[in-house]
Automatic annotation (TrEMBL):
Residues 45-97, 210-236 are annotated as: Disordered. This is Calmodulin-lysine N-methyltransferase. It comes from the Eukaryota. Signal peptide: none annotated. Residues 80-90 have a biased composition (Low complexity). Pfam families: Methyltransf_16 (PF10294).
Length: 249
């Protein structure tokens, strides 16, 4: 989740009549130092905007002003298993914090470490009934890839919904041996995991420090095989951004 831009925007901007519910996850330090403060700030801005649009709401008391409660699944804590020691049980994970984004849209944040079993960190209701898994540039380091995909595999396998959730995975190609590659990601997704991968979008991304004299108009992918888009001598593509949709077969 990082600073929470993608998840917060999804929760705040969707016009779904039933209300959108988003659970943001990252390592504990990121949740505490970045996600929670940003969500608190956004909620304050939303409340300020609502007061400015309707100043009389400060003195009115109507049923519409009574804040709704966050969905129970967003606030769930991991189940305590019989195999846990007393010391680990005493250090029970705190409940996620949930924030009202208006119009019955909610976003919550909780910690998740991809290198640890999912069921020890989240309650089953937080990963068994999802519509989408959004991973925005999460696998840029090679060391991250296995953990992320194992977590996604668990969500696919444990899903109790009629339709298995879709993984929307964005990735930016980078120039370094320590970073993972598009080919490596596709190999893991398609060959190793056996998942279906569809490239929804592709575009070149230029670094602000790149020499503008060496750049020209971006190339246009000529086919559905976007993972290896065409290039030409006058258009060096230093970095590329991909958006994949991934589903189990």
């Amino acid at each position: 989740a990082g600073v929470g831009v993608v998840g917060t925007c999804l929760a705040a901007s969707s016009d779904s009549g039933g209300g959108v519910q988003v659970l943001l996850t990252d390592l504990p330090t990121i949740v505490k130092k970045s996600l929670i403060p940003n969500l608190q700030h956004n909620q304050r801005l939303l409340q300020k905007q609502q007061r400015q649009q309707d100043p009389s709401s400060l003195t009115k008391t109507t049923p519409l002003e009574i804040p709704s409660s966050p969905p129970s699944w967003l606030m769930a804590s991991p189940e305590t298993t019989t195999t846990q020691s007393s010391s680990s049980s005493s250090q029970k994970k705190k409940k996620p914090q949930a924030f009202d984004m208006g119009h019955n849209h909610w976003v919550a944040a909780t910690s998740l470490d991809w290198t640890k079993p999912l069921h020890t960190q989240l309650h089953p209701c937080q990963y068994q009934n999802l519509d989408y898994i959004i991973a925005s540039d999460c696998v840029w380091l090679m060391s991250m890839l296995e953990g992320v995909l194992t977590t996604v595999q668990t969500i696919f396998d444990e899903s109790t919904t009629t339709t298995v959730p879709k993984l929307l995975l964005s990735f930016q190609r980078r120039d370094s041996e320590m970073f993972t590659t598009v080919d490596r990601i596709l190999q893991e997704l398609q060959t190793v995991r056996g998942w279906k991968v569809t490239c929804l979008a592709w575009y070149p991304a230029y670094d602000p420090d790149d020499d503008p004299n060496e750049m020209s108009s971006p190339p246009t992918p000529a086919s559905s095989d976007h993972h290896n888009p065409p290039q030409n001598a006058t258009t060096p593509v230093v970095k590329e951004v991909f958006l994949f949709q991934v589903t189990p077969r």
